[in-house]
Amino acid sequence: MEKEEELLKSHITKHHLKATKERSAILKAFLDSERHVSAEALYRQMKDEGSTIGLATVYRTLNLFCSSGLAEQRRFGDGQARYELTYNVDHHDHLICKECDLIIEFENDEIEALQKKVAKENNFKVSSHRLELYGVCSECLKEKST
Amino acid sequence: MEKEEELLKSHITKHHLKATKERSAILKAFLDSERHVSAEALYRQMKDEGSTIGLATVYRTLNLFCSSGLAEQRRFGDGQARYELTYNVDHHDHLICKECDLIIEFENDEIEALQKKVAKENNFKVSSHRLELYGVCSECLKEKST
DNA sequence: TCTTACTTGAGAAGTATTATCAAAATCAGT
DNA sequence: ACTGATTTTGATAATACTTCTCAAGTAAGA
Ligand SMILES: [Mn+2]
Ligand SMILES: [Mn+2]
Ligand SMILES: [Zn+2]
Ligand SMILES: [Zn+2]
Which residues contact A2 (CB under 8 A, 6 or more apart)? Predict the structure, then answer.
């Protein structure tokens, strides 16, 4: 059993929830999907492969993944939430291309440290943060110049 | 005429729009409102003072303020958009208390510079960014410890 | 003053997500 | 394996926020 399955299983047991084939199937599809997938996209992808699982269950299960520490929800400003696997994945922030929706992940320890400093200066206890840089990626810049 | 009125007026003229009493009233109310006000809150505030302007017009006009460079829209994750005056206001980011909705603004040039560096390393042309630190403010921390 | 184009308020519509509920599935204890 | 309590599911209703529609009203400028 993969480590993600184990984590989900332990969360399910601890909270007196139930292991279902729908949850397994959604987890498998989620692990196979591209990073930053939306509920709708995951639902559609599964449906195209024959799944009959409902959209509501996909939403419910992605929320369950978030509660269990497997995934995190992101909102990049286009209305729909995206979910990404964050279990055993280092913290990172995002560069988002507004032309082609490319998302580049980056880590910058200096920025992280400065954020902590800002929080401290304001006597703020930070529990989460979001840093997103919006613009145009190198590929789209190339296309634009032609 | 205040500088904000002038900016709006020039945008209106340039785009063959029309100066209306509704737009003036909403601008005045917006300038008097607290920073990071939502459309609904501004609408309610005006209504309480006798205005009969509709909610749709408040939304339309706040969007107009954004197009004209007077204001910017913010989304702090609680579903509703907020608008803040940014004309003649230096760029800044936000600390958001999840307990009491307090919003603290901060500027950090080192972080800004590092963001530019990250963008450059990825051949990305950044047009905007958002940095938000979520957590608990000092006041709420005090209350929690009692 | 006329004419044209823009704006308005009210409510309908749209979008993303969550809530409801009856039927089905899972699980713990026998 | 059987049973009964509890959870989960799919379909769809409901919700929340925002934009759209449209007929009536208003501003701009010749
Ligand atoms: Mn990511
Ligand atoms: Mn601000
Ligand atoms: Zn791109
Ligand atoms: Zn607080």
Answer: A31
By the 8 A CB rule, do A77 and A91 touch?
no
**B101–chain A Cβ distance below 8 A for any pair:** no
Closest nt by CA–C1' to B51: C9
User: Which amino acid is located at B117 in the chain?
Assistant: K
pLDDT (0 to 100) of residue B15: 96
Average pLDDT over residues A95-121: 96
CA to C1' distance (Å), from A111 to C4: 55
Backbone angles phi, psi at B137, to 5 degrees: -75, 170
Q: Which residue do the tokens 């300038």 mark?
A: B31
Statement: A2-85 belongs to CATH 1.10.10.10: yes
DSSP helix/strand/coil, A77: coil
Calculate how far, in angstroms, residue A112's C-alpha sits from the geometric centre of ligand 2.
21
Domain residue spans in chain B? 2-85, 93-145
Q: Flag whether residue B118 sits within 8 Å of chain A, measured between CB atoms.
A: yes
Q: Does domain A93-145 have CATH number 3.30.1490.190?
A: yes
Q: What is the pLDDT of residues A4-49, one digit of tens each?
A: 999 999 999 999 999 999 999 999 999 999 999 999 999 999 999 9
Confidence bin at B1 (pLDDT 50/70/90): low
Predicted model pTM? 0.91
Q: Which of residues 26-55 of B touch A (CB under 8 A)?
A: none
A145 CB within 8 Å of a chain B CB: no
